[in-house]
């Protein structure tokens, strides 16, 4: 059974349809990437999955239909979303940001989870009492990811984690994602403009153009595809 799949997914803002029959599937434990230029509809796709825009069609996670469910219930079913711009609380400490991620869980469990994820993010551990707003962009992205992980998701959604980060920092973010995926088996779906680093981390890729999936396949064959190289690898 496919772990996560959208079928005939359409999303609109008011009268304007932005996503057209989007079909994406991800196997359990995989990292999948959706590539697309500015305005292709990547953010809308993430927002459709989390119930933040009006959608039609089907979104199934582990056998459960999510279209029509509210955002909090989608989160409870195991989807965590790291939005574009990260959504960290700049006036809260690193530790308090992480506690926000665990708001549905008992305090003791949150403390144990924080320790677990600090192992993957040693910088967050050493800065746990500092305000999130004082950290670098890369550290804030790591914090946003760690906060999402504290909620113990089965599917982690990431909206352009490379945005605004230097290439070296982007590589660090993807390297920790790959490590977390390998060690914990968590399924990851990431949308990116930065094809090079994303395709290197992923096993499967999709290309979105003007709200439609126009290509899909193994990430490896996409990395070697001339058309994709020209369009997304510079
Ligand atoms: P970016 O990388 O710039 O975020 P994207 O691929 O994530 O681009 P979306 O943000 O999903 O693309 O936008 C897709 C289309 O939907 C664009 O044409 C955009 O103008 C439109 N759109 C996005 N948000 C809204 C909104 N709140 N109301 C109306 N139209 C919107």
Concise synopsis of the structure shown:
By secondary structure, the protein is of the alpha/beta class. It contains 10 helices and 10 strands.
Protein described:
Keywords: Amino-acid transport, ATP-binding, Nucleotide-binding, Transport. Residues 4-233 form the ABC transporter domain. InterPro entries: AAA+_ATPase, ABC_transporter-like_ATP-bd, ABC_transporter-like_CS, BCAA_Transport_ATP-bd_LivF, P-loop_NTPase. Pfam families: ABC_tran. 38% of the residues lie in helices and 27% in strands. With 234 residues, the chain is α/β, with parallel strands linked by helices. The strands form two sheets. Strands 6-7-8-3-9-10 form a six-stranded mixed β-sheet, with helices on both faces. The protein has a four-stranded antiparallel β-sheet with strand order 2-1-4-5, covered by helices on one side. The termini are far apart. The model has no long low-confidence stretch (mean pLDDT 94). Adenosine-5'-triphosphate is lined by residues 13, 16, 18, 36, 38-44, 84. Residues 13, 16, 18, 36, 38-44, 84 line the site of adenosine-5'-triphosphate.
